[in-house]
Structures are given as structure tokens and as C-alpha cells.
Specification:
Number of helices: 1
Strand order of the largest sheet: 3-2-1-4
Structural class: alpha+beta
Radius of gyration: 16 Å
Order of helices and strands: EEEHE
Distance between the termini: 44 Å
Strand content: 25-35%
Helix content: 10-25%
């Protein structure tokens, strides 16, 4: 279930799905409304989409975008910050 209390009126709700982890995320615009909310084991984004539409129904003019599916690049390594000499 998404955050019970939103800090303001959402204009848009974005639904994205990480195909590698099977986790979906709801993000709000403006970002001050609520932090991103994740749902485990939602590979097709159906649960997130349902929850996003329930929230949007409470706020006239709020739109839902997605679900957008993404996968990490195979073999991609995270870049590490190099420590500066002397500190």
C-alpha cells in the first residue's frame, strides 16, 4: 500500500518496473508529495498500476504514467569513486 499520507497534491504518478529484480516503483511528481514507494514481486507492474490509479482517483487531474519496464545492462559494473590522495 502506498504512503497513507501524501504531503500535498500529486500531479503525476509514475510506475516503473525493474525486470531483473521483479520490483515495481511508484514515484510522485512533485517529489515533495511522497518518497518513491516499492512493491516486491510485481514483475508485470499490475499491483503498482492498480495502487497508482487508486491514489490518482482521489486527486482530480492527477495522471498515471507507465508502467515503464527497464533492465540493467548485462555485465555493467557500477562506477566507483576514486579516493583523492591525501584525503
Amino acid at each position: 500500500m502506498p504512503p497513507a499520507t501524501l504531503h500535498g497534491r500529486p500531479q503525476r504518478i509514475f510506475v516503473s518496473v525493474d525486470e531483473a529484480s521483479g520490483r515495481s516503483t511508484l514515484s510522485f511528481l512533485p517529489t515533495e508529495v511522497a518518497p518513491p514507494y516499492q512493491i516486491e514481486d510485481d514483475r508485470r507492474g499490475e499491483l503498482a498500476l492498480k495502487e497508482a490509479h487508486e491514489v490518482a482517483a482521489r486527486y482530480a487531474g492527477c495522471t498515471v504514467e507507465g508502467p515503464h519496464f527497464h533492465t540493467p545492462k548485462p555485465g555493467a559494473k557500477r562506477m566507483r569513486r576514486r579516493e583523492r590522495p591525501g584525503g
